């Protein structure tokens, strides 16, 4: 014999589910870090993620107080952004590699605490 659920319990269950859904949507949209290109960084305060291509010769080391210093450029543009990074450097990091850095601008320099290299094209499927 099937038990019949009361309408009050159904309303409570639906209310809890709706509140949870609203919370998840809010945190997914509001809690994200804006993703920008080097040409878009000017005027942004706070934490952002910036994607670009490493140009020039990186200097320093990521484990030193001065950090690893390099410049990234818009992938399809000319704007550049100086970056200083302290932390673990991915094995694939080098000049010419597409990277994503996360941090904030301080005195005209992007101070990153997260560095991710994008996979080189040899690891992606070829277009036919």
Write structural notes for this entry.
It is a single chain. The chain is of the alpha/beta class. It has a domain at 35-123: Beta Barrel (OB fold (Dihydrolipoamide Acetyltransferase, E2P)), CATH 2.40.50. Helices cover 19% and strands 34% of the residues. It has one helix and six strands; from the N terminus they run H-E-E-E-E-E-E. The chain has one helix spanning 7-30; strands spanning 35-36, 48-59, 68-73, 80-85, 98-106, 109-117. It has a five-stranded mixed beta barrel with strand order 2-3-4-6-5. The longest helix has 24 residues, at 7-30.
Brief overview:
This protein is an alpha/beta fold.
Name the descriptors.
single chain, 128 residues, alpha/beta, OB fold (Dihydrolipoamide Acetyltransferase, E2P), 5-stranded mixed barrel, 1 helix
Structural class: alpha/beta
The CATH C-level name of the domain at 35-123 is Mainly Beta
Shape annotation: elongated
The count of β-strands is 6
Alpha carbon gyration radius: 22 Å
Beta-strand residue percentage: 25-35%
Question: What would CATH call the homologous superfamily of the domain at 35-123?
Answer: Nucleic acid-binding proteins
CATH architecture of the domain at 35-123: Beta Barrel
Residue share in helices? 10-25%
Q: Within the largest sheet, what's the order of strands?
A: 2-3-4-6-5
State the order of secondary-structure elements, H for helix, E for strand. HEEEEEE
> What gap, in angstroms, lies between the N and C termini?
60 Å
CATH topology of the domain at 35-123, by name, is OB fold (Dihydrolipoamide Acetyltransferase, E2P)
Count of DSSP-assigned helices: 1
Average pLDDT confidence is 83
Spans of at least 5 consecutive residues whose pLDDT stays below 50 are none
Largest sheet: 5 strands, mixed, barrel
């Amino acid at each position: 014999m099937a038990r019949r659920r009361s309408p009050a319990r159904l309303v409570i269950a639906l209310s809890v589910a709706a509140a949870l859904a609203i919370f998840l949507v809010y945190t997914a949209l509001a809690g994200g870090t804006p993703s920008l290109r080097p040409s878009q960084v000017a005027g942004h305060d706070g934490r952002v993620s910036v994607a670009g291509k490493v140009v020039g010769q990186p200097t320093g080391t990521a484990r030193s107080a001065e950090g690893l210093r390099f410049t990234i450029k818009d992938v399809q543009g000319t704007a550049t952004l100086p970056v200083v990074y302290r932390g673990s450097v991915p094995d694939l990091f080098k000049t010419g590699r597409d990277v994503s850095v996360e941090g904030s601008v301080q005195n005209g320099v992007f101070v990153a605490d997260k560095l991710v290299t994008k996979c080189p094209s040899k690891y992606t499927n070829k277009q036919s």
